[in-house]
Amino acid sequence: MQASTFKVRVDAIRDEAQGIRSFRVSRVDGQPFDKYEPGAHIDVTAPSGITRQYSLCSDPDSNDHLLFAVKREPESRGGSRSLHDEVEIGGELLIGPPRNLFRLVHEAQFHLLVGAGIGITPLLSMAYRLESSSQPFVLHYFARSEEHAAFLSLLSQQRFAGNVKLHFGVEPGDLGTELRSCLADAQSGTHVYTCGPTPFMDQVVAIGESTKSIAEVLLERFSAAPIEPSTSSFEAFDVKVASTGQVIRVVKDQSIVDALATIGIEIDTSCGEGICGTCMVDVVEGTPEHRDHCLSKAEREGSKVICCCVSRSLSPLLVLDI
Ligand code: FES
């Protein structure tokens, strides 16, 4: 688990849409939060004791509070259900510092934000920054209906309205056509940022990667897709700790995190499923077999980082910068 968590007070709770509730929190000691970049997420520990990751949807240039929104999941094991049912205004929560694997690309010619449902949250913080810095962008927001669309009154405000396009009630069979029309006019050098249910993002990625004018598609997942079986020819491999020279064998069905723990090296983790990036470390030598869901295509191809909770190795040895 992460070491650096701290307490915050809940100042406001708002129902943003059917089943989606936002929580505005401030530091218990009255100090401002550290600056964070749009697209960041935080760990939030619910009163049930369960920790989950939630994207920040506040204005990243206002650091007196943080805002995150939680969708009540019917299958909740105590994370979203506890936050919806057991948190009141004035109560306290434990959160972790913002982490970001979903950053705006500064050299982008144009930013296309494409979100669905609760996936609006990281895109909202991006929209704040893009609007305040006068960078060109359009935000396409898909929801089952107006009642299921979060932050609608905010998105309708003058500062955003001209850049926001709403898509309500699009049938699954029509989604590809609708997305293609959203991406069709992308100018050269456009970066696409998407967040929402996995099948939605899969379509955005497929269409985006086959559209010539789109430079890159970046995405943020809220839940892990099933982990593919390993394709590595090495069932077991060695990990070398660059700082000490220690070498530890990672056996079949063991994670790098667990193997390192046997020699007393603790890697911070949070989700344990390859979606949050907490366990990411730099790779000095060797070729990772990426089995996470949070690194971008460019980061995977560069093979310079690895998520130690789920990823393995395509080479017999990985030297890690720890
Ligand atoms: S702990 Fe979340 S990606 Fe590894």
CATH topology of the largest domain: Rossmann fold
The CATH architecture of the largest domain: 3-Layer(aba) Sandwich
Going by CATH, what is the homologous superfamily of the largest domain? Nucleotide-binding domain of ferredoxin-NADP reductase (FNR) module
Structural class: alpha/beta
Q: Beta-strand percentage?
A: 25-35%
User: What's the helical proportion of residues?
Assistant: 10-25%
Number of domains: 3
Largest sheet: 6 strands, antiparallel
Give the beta-strand count.
Answer: 18
Enumerate the spans where pLDDT stays under 50 for 5 or more consecutive residues: none
What small-molecule ligands were found? FE2/S2 (inorganic) cluster
| Average of pLDDT | 91
CATH class of the largest domain equals Alpha Beta
Order of helices and strands: EEEEEHEEHEHHEHEHEEEHEEHEEE
Specify Rg, calculated over alpha carbons.
20 Å
In DSSP terms (H or I, runs of 4 or more residues), the helix count works out at: 8
Strand order of the largest sheet: 4-3-6-1-2-5
How would you explain this protein's 3D organization?
- The strands form four sheets. Strands 4-3-6-1-2-5 form a six-stranded antiparallel sheet.
- The chain folds into three domains: 90 residues, Elongation Factor Tu (Ef-tu), domain 3, CATH 2.40.30.10; 111 residues, Nucleotide-binding domain of ferredoxin-NADP reductase (FNR) module (Rossmann fold, 3-Layer(aba) Sandwich), CATH 3.40.50; 84 residues, Ubiquitin-like (UB roll), CATH 3.10.20.
- The mean pLDDT is 91.
- Helices cover 19% and strands 30% of the residues.
- It has 322 residues and is an alpha/beta fold.
- It is globular, with a radius of gyration of 20 Å.
- FE2/S2 (inorganic) cluster binds next to loops.
